[in-house]
Amino acid sequence: MAEAGKPLSGILKIDIADPALKVVLTFEASNDGDEWTPETLAAALAERGLEKRPDHSVLSEFLKKAAASAGKGPVSAEVVTGIAPVQPAPDTPLWEDLPVPEELKQISSDVLDQTPPPVIERTLREPVERETTVKQKSGFPFGKERVETKIVRDTVERQERVYIDPTVQDLFFVHQGALVGRITPRSEGIPGRDVFGRAIPIRRLADPAFYCGPNLQKVRDDIRAGASGFVRVGPNWADLIPFSNHSWSVELSPDKATAFLIFSPGHRALPLPDPEEILQAARELPYPEESLMNARELLQLLTDQAETGTEERLVISSSRDASFDIYVPEDKLAAYLNIHKGKGRGKPLNLRDVGTAIKQSGLKKLNFETIKKDILAFYESNEMDLTSYLLCEGTAPVPGPERQVEYSITFNPPETTEKITSRLEELLREATGGTEDPETPDAPPRVDPEEIRLDSLKEFPADEIQKTAFVKAEQLLCSIDPPTPGEPGMDVYGAIIPAEPGPVAEIILHENITRQKAVIATTRAGVLDYRESDGVVSLRLRPHQDAKIDVTLAEDRMEAWLSLEEGAGTGKLLTREAIDQALAQARVTHGLDHEAIATALRAARASKAGAPVTQITVARGTPPTHQSENRVEHLVGGPSAAPVRIRKDGTADYRSRSDIITVEEGQELCRLLPSQQSAIDGTDVTGSSVPARKLGGFELEIGPNVSRREETDGSVTLCSEIRGELLATAKRIEVLSSHTVKGDVDMSVGNIRFPGAVTIGGTVRSGFYVVSTGDVKIGGGVEGALISSDGDIMIKQGVKGGGKAVLRSKRNILSPFVELATVLAVGDVILKTALVRSRIKCNGKISFKGDKGRIVGGTLRARNGFEVACVGSPRGIKTKLSFGQDYLVADLIEKEEKEIEKVKRRITQVDLEMRKNEKTGATEALETLRSEKIKLLKLMEKRGLRLFTLRERFEQHFPSKVVISGEVHSGTIFESHGRTFEVTSPRKAIAVEFNPHTGNIDISELNGS
Questions:
Q1: Residue 529, SS3?
Q2: 798 in a domain, yes or no?
Q3: How many CB atoms lie within 10 A of CB 228?
């Protein structure tokens, strides 16, 4: 420990954090450092420009602690402190405990949903000037008064809308006049002062006020409810939604002739009172039920009154006003008058209104004298109602001539019709007969009753068929002539009524026929039946389809397939004879499966027509027996290689998988061993011979980059022609120069380390790495992962590193954007949109494609400079751009300095051990230590020389420029060769360069800015 009053040797560090509210001294005792006393410490602090300096005793105490901790590490102490600012606070409400009652919690949501966002206004008082005239009396008794104009200053109040965040943060329920809460008034804040004597400003609140909306009253600092209801509270506002229940009562008029409902509407979200309860209360007054309005009318009355929101005395007795209407039927060929006289409290009938309505109705051919006479007679009579009084009549139109039908099909000759009809009758009789014999399934089947059952046979029997025709699906049968207009009429308003076209001959459509406007067509193929009786035509389409048999052979003729479709209706049905004939025509003679043929026949008969049985294998050839080399001995990997790596402790490592098998150039992959099987010819389904393959071919398919070597024992050895990835299956082997992952790099794939190019279709997930000696192409994005490449790194969807991603490339890195990542590139870093809060070192250029690139936050070093549209943020985020130097050399300098520091510490440790051995007389250990120290000093000299060379290389200047075409925000720092320039106010369109002649950073405006 150093003696009191004597200087203390060591290394001193003065830290002043931002904002400069404290000064921290860190001291580490060392013989290699400077000598320090309280006076030299005070002088060092004075050089930093501090306004307030520590006392001599504080500095003396700090040196004593540092001396006491010598050899134990650095000592830190806070010696000067500033005054921190007190930030302003807005108006802050303290709310009373006003919970929403349980019975109102469910309806409170409806009330909030139905109430629009609050409209908040504040009162502004503004001074205004106005002219006024003042009469001044004369100083003489008979003098005239003078009129003078004066300027008067008044204060005018006006309301201004306050735009707020309408988010509701809390909800209370209060009664009128209740205390809702109290406002803690705003505080203005107190500025601080840092250790340099500079003022530390306080932040200014955009709007410190708390606003009370409708129905809330602010009295001094109290907030009270102006009505009962729900109080909704926002970020800096509150208002009250009035809420009350419905109330009602019933009473009679003084003469007991009229019943009244006194109804005071509550909130609209509440259900209306039950009309039946109100009517029951009126009956109990008592009041006759027949004189009350019904429940539906009362509900409408309540609904209308609730809309007004005011209390009203409503009549609920039934009354009838006088009414009248002019009724014109839809065809407008007549006009009728209905009149109902008024009764009770209803409005009386006004004949003048009736006459005016008739005159303004627009009706033609009115006999006003007769109408007036008849209405007056009704008015003077005892009748209460005049209904369906004929005012006038129109003229009906006359339809056009009958429309003709034109057929577009060719009917069969009579003999064909007779034959088809006889077949139908025969099938109908047969369908009611016996069933198939299960012992003879190949016998011709009886007809399925469902195939010929027609609902129209009762009204259109087979013996009434007059014509037939074979038709196809969706075939046009006939079309109807266009309509011919008839003679138009005239309605009661004098408008022309078009005449309907003439009628068309009646056509009755039965099964499987459709009509679209003037066109009649089929819906399926079959036989059309035609009948005409008394001008009425009947059309029906019944099933008719011959059975279909199709035999197909495989390309190698080793299989024959049979497809069957059963006939329908009067068509030919399937038989075994017809199938055998079709097989013979296809020359299928070998390997016939008769059971399969019978099964297919039964299945086709069981299915409906139009649902064929297809591709049934009914014959198989005899395959040849090949002589081939089909035994494979894998020497590397193979189809059964385990993809999961097992650790030494027996657990599975699912991230570092072993399913990528890397082989070297010339490495043996597998051996193909010869087979002892002899060749035997086969026979196809047509009886032809199929020769067997002789010895000489390999079943294993050999892919690219694999060579074969014939061995003396008859085997074949397969070798890799390149260094790459081995892919081996049971039937194919190949070596790829690149590795491809179709999806994400995650637990299903594991980490990737490959001596070549790597292509990834998805995203590299957090916690995984991709290490490649070639290019790395990533079709998705990169999370908190490591990507290392000896070539380019190309990322399609960007990097969201979360502070964990690391990208290292010996060439270039291309990505749309990079967020929170560490990037190292020997070449360029090319981006598209953004570079956010990242650390980048590259010996090329950092540039953006397009005009929207921006850099926000982080430390970025690029030897050849930057090209970007915008740098920094309006919030002043620190963004540091370094350029013009080899920053990879800077990494080597940092590494060398750490190694030198290790050597220094070891030399210090050796010196201490040598002193101990000198005292104890350990000569042998002392000599060993001296030899080690000599080696360390030589190593120190060697590393020092290397560090000197590296620093000279780092000081070398590389021509570069930072070009920013858009905005440069405050907080942006440019650095080169130890010189810095910080932007303190926003700038636009600048170029930044380092001037090696002056040693300064030059800023220039871009042309056209």
A1: strand
A2: no
A3: 17
